[in-house]
Specification:
This protein is mainly beta. It has helices spanning about 35-40, 145-150, and strands spanning about 1-5, 20, 70-75, 90-95, 115-125, 130-140, 155-160.
């Protein structure tokens, strides 16, 4: 299969985004076979897909996106508030609440800062200052709380270990 039109990371693929391309058999190439076309529609792009490129399994995010019990929240993350360049769709993260300006930092060994477990849906390209927007899937009861913290600029992300 190949990509029929540009698809940004995080977007759900439709049948119009995918086309069948004939390529010679080559061990160096591993595009998804045309027989998988129906199972690819509805999956989420893990990276930006460019028109004309071969479609690889590694370019698709695990699962089909948000579950019925999840909400999506966009969080603007400034440079230094998340692991640099390592976040990808499907990563498990903790959205940690940062202290307000003027508040004292928690002392080592004291209470753990409040955090919300989330899954990365997509990550934008950095702007000129290095800021990215990370779309996070969270439980329905946690979306509003995370949205408020994000609006106040008080969120940092911690990536959980990736399972092997």
């Amino acid at each position: 299969m190949a990509v029929a039109r540009d698809v940004p990371a995080g977007q759900v693929l439709t049948s119009a985004d995918i086309t069948v391309a004939e390529v010679s058999a080559d061990a160096a190439l591993s595009p998804l076979p045309a027989a998988d076309k129906t199972s690819v529609a509805g999956r989420r792009a893990a990276v930006d897909l460019r028109k004309g490129g071969l479609l690889l399994a590694s370019q698709l995010a695990p699962g089909a996106g948000l579950g019925d019990d999840q909400e999506q929240v966009g969080v603007q993350i400034k440079r230094g508030m998340a692991p640099s360049g390592t976040l990808a769709a499907g990563d498990k993260v903790k959205a940690v609440t940062m202290p307000a300006q003027g508040d004292e930092l928690p002392k080592s060994g004291s209470t753990v800062p409040e955090s919300i477990e989330a899954t990365v849906v997509s990550v934008s390209r950095p702007d000129a200052s290095g800021t990215v927007v990370v779309n996070l899937a969270v439980g329905a009861d946690e979306g509003p709380s995370l949205a408020v913290r994000a609006a106040l600029g008080r969120v940092a992300l911690v990536r959980e270990p990736r399972s092997s």
